[in-house]
Amino acid sequence: MTPGKASDQKHAVANLSNLYRIFTVPESPDSTLGRIDQEISQNLNGFLRNHIVATEQDLTIIEQGFSSPRIPEQPTFVSDYTEFLLDTLVAQSVHTAAPGFVGHMTSALPNFMLPLSRIMTALNQNLVKIETSKAFTPMERQVLGMLHALIYGKDDAYYQHWMHDPECALGSFCSGGTLANITALWVARNNLFPADDGFQGIAKEGLYRAFRHYGCEGAVVLISQRGHYSFGKAADLLGIGRDSIIAIPTDADNRIDIGELQATCDRLKEQGIRIISLVGIAGTTETGNVDPLDKLADIAEQQGCHFHVDAAWGGPTLFSETYKPLLKGIERADSVTIDAHKQLYVPMGAGMVLFKNPASLSSIEHHAEYILRKGSKDLGSHTLEGSRPGTAMLVHSALNIIGRKGYELLIDKGIGIARTFAAMIDADADFELITEPELNLLTYRYVPAPLQALLPKLPAGELAAVNRELDALTMQIQKVQRAAGQSFVSRTRLSRPQYDNDTITVFRVVLANPLTTPEILREMLAEQKQIATEDPEAAAIVAGLLESVAED
Ligand SMILES: *Cc1c(COP(=O)(O)O)cnc(C)c1O
């Protein structure tokens, strides 16, 4: 069905008075849109539960509803269009707020976010400059100050001095972790090749002349092999190329190997290659592990290079008195990425990068005559993006409405239930815990008990063959479980030291929804076991595996 095109439907008419209505007259409360609007406002969760049918429909079928490239010649009534949205889009979207949706970092939202985001949308402020955002600008600066204080914990006088200083910025608000990481490396690159005698700085003269002027053979970013792919994009954009992201091996706990890192630094020095930034990860995307940030800060100091921490996921762990010691050393970072649309429970499109030194961002400062004049407090002079929405308002709301203590409860609950789930997996002879939860992520796989007992004894060649079968089994279980729609885990591939660094496929679980209970997780395991025995494809793999080990 295409929007509003059923044959018996009246057409809306394109004329100026109707257009004028769209901009001025609200839909009446008893129109379809008005009704849906009220329902959503009153009970978001209930609405989603009743309307999002988790039936797996093939994407090619869904694509048929979105197949025409033609912009409709005639207007469509808003109410007709809304019906189309409900049938074709909403019904086939993903219920990311479901307590059984534990596969990704897209979080459930507190109810207050919906009415508050409407305020934001209605005001439609543009944070690029004060002329289009007024009070939103100081508010965004305060949000950046709040997160800065969470990380760096300076005193009140410090924030009195810097928070609203027009010459500086404590950070840059952006649409997510990717933009935040790119901004951090952009700043680090520009600060590494500043203006000098006979050189106007890399921002003006570019990479080639910067290398020539500073007599440098190349410039790299050092990060563990668990680093997020956004750094590859950053390297590409910054002109150093993706190969200049040097992936340092990790230890058995997915943390950067300090010995390997040190050796790499020594080698780079001999080759005349500069380090744009050393990057530590506070909560890797795949396993949730935290690099030894204090040690990384020491090495960055020795090397005299920028130290960035990617805390897109794990940053809010700092709210927890119990768990914040895991991030010890983050306060020594020159810059830190935090995603608000992950563990700050804000709708998609909110990320930040904070800088220890309020002058750091000057290296990417940009001015234009009609806006962003020098000395103005316009936020646009320190951001990669131009026009930007007032999303900081939602971060401000969440920080105030949930509060430090509220976030502490959320963080503690997430890590607590991850440990409970790990114990559950450990206690079940048919599952193998692959990575323990350090934060609220863990990975595991289904390995039938008799096989699990034999795995450590298998010769290398045979082990790899068994692992490939187990990979196929993990994929099949995940696929069938997702299609059944009760719960969702994601999967990833990890190299594991206990299997000669063989790369295996595992289930990946992210526990950040406070409504996820141990019972839900228990049922999830039971369902996986059931799939392994009852789904014909999965059962065939299991039978084959058990047969092959029985022969030995
Ligand atoms: C999610 C994530 C990112 C990327 O953030 P986006 O908001 O998806 O752009 C970067 N680094 C880490 C560690 C992440 O978990």
Automatic annotation (TrEMBL):
* Any single GO CC term annotated in Swiss-Prot or TrEMBL for this entry: cytoplasm
Cite the Pfam families for this sequence.
Pyridoxal_deC (PF00282)
Q: Name one GO biological process term.
A: carboxylic acid metabolic process
Residues with the modification N6-(pyridoxal phosphate)lysine, per the entry, are: K342
What name does this protein carry?
Glutamate decarboxylase
**GO MF entry, a single one:** pyridoxal phosphate binding
The UniProt keyword set, sorted, is: Decarboxylase, Lyase, Pyridoxal phosphate
